[in-house]
Design brief:
The protein is of the alpha/beta class. The chain has two domains: about 160 residues; about 130 residues, Glutaredoxin (3-Layer(aba) Sandwich). The protein has 15 helices and seven strands. It has a five-stranded mixed beta sheet. A two-stranded antiparallel ribbon has the order 1-2.
Length: about 325
């Protein structure tokens, strides 16, 4: 999750008011309520409680709307951001810059409205609308570029993945044995295949292996194929990888393979960050391509198998 102060700097470009509020003594009930409203990032129930307290302390509805926006952006909740569009359009008629808790220029406010409209269009799969509104948002406030980029990259990746079809006949060297294995032998009779690209030297990969193992066990129990792929077969990398797998037991969940040098699957799937999870249908089409924390992965899995349960804690080594 992105830090709130970083979000204000990157997305809105005007963190001064909020940071001063954080650093000054909480002299009044309203200031305390405002600080709580802008910093709450817990559950939706907790956020609703800060909104109730803010209203009791005479915090304006405009400020509450701004806080709602930041809350959902920090939590990467696109559907909730899109749902704020009617409120933003209504508030725009009475926007008061002096009453804003986070904006220093009216163009910042207008840029966020365009941003919300872009996300709303994206939710409706309206690519033309998305491009129009995200371009206008950038024009109004170029400082927001770092906030827009993930949405643009996601859209471009989705377009590219529509053209990809995995060749299950491709054989890969294995990390845990000497015999190469074809993906076709792993996907046979399965509902879908989860590909896990990882790098032992990457701390995110090493730190999330127990969580991935829990996910792998949950999927294997529901007749999904699970395949992990290393993208570097240097002796040092292979040694480190095998050592990291030791806590997962003598038979780590799923198949542990090494990506092809001649036709890297990681390149075809546009690997840019580790770890990467890619869900592939039985026909070889791409159903999901993203990080392990992306809720869309589990939404897609539930469409395939409504009975699948996301593990809440690392599974015990089996």
């Amino acid at each position: 999750m992105r830090l709130h102060t970083i979000l204000l700097a990157a997305l809105l470009g005007s963190p001064g008011a909020f940071l001063c509020a954080q650093e000054s003594p909480a002299a009044t009930e309203r200031q305390v309520a405002l600080d709580d409203l802008l910093s709450e990032r817990g559950s939706l129930q907790a956020f609703d409680e800060t909104i109730a307290a803010a209203r009791k302390s005479a915090v304006s509805e405009q400020t509450i709307l701004e806080a709602r926006f930041l809350f959902h952006v920090d939590r990467d909740e696109d559907a909730a951001i899109a749902a704020l569009l009617p409120a933003f359009l209504k508030q725009n008629e009475n926007f008061n810059l002096a009453d804003s808790a986070i904006f220093s220029l009216q163009d910042d406010w207008l840029a966020v409205i365009e941003y919300v409209q872009a996300i709303h269009a994206l939710q409706k799969n309206d690519r033309t609308g998305f491009k129009t509104h995200i371009s206008e948002a950038f024009w109004l406030n170029p400082r927001q570029a770092s906030a827009f980029a993930p949405h643009i990259e996601r859209l471009r990746l989705a377009d590219a993945m529509r053209l990809v079809k995995i060749n299950f006949q491709t054989q890969f060297p294995t990390l845990t044995s000497t015999e190469p294995i074809a993906l076709s032998s792993l996907i046979a009779g399965k509902k879908a295949m989860l590909l896990h690209f990882w790098a032992p030297a990457n701390p995110d990969c090493a730190g999330t292996l127990p969580d991935f193992a829990a996910t792998a066990h949950a999927l294997l129990e529901r007749d999904f194929a699970v395949v992990s792929l290393l993208t570097d077969d240097s002796p040092e990398n292979l040694t480190t990888a095998r050592k990291l797998l030791e806590p997962l037991g003598p038979t780590p969940p799923g198949a542990w393979l090494i990506d092809s040098k001649q036709t890297p699957l990681s390149r075809e799937l546009r690997l840019q960050t580790y770890p990467l999870l890619v869900l592939v249908s039985g026909e070889g089409t791409i159903l999901f391509n993203g990080g392990p924390s992306d809720e869309q992965l589990w939404e897609t899995l539930h469409k395939i198998d409504p009975a699948i349960v996301r593990p809440t804690a690392p599974a015990e080594t089996r």
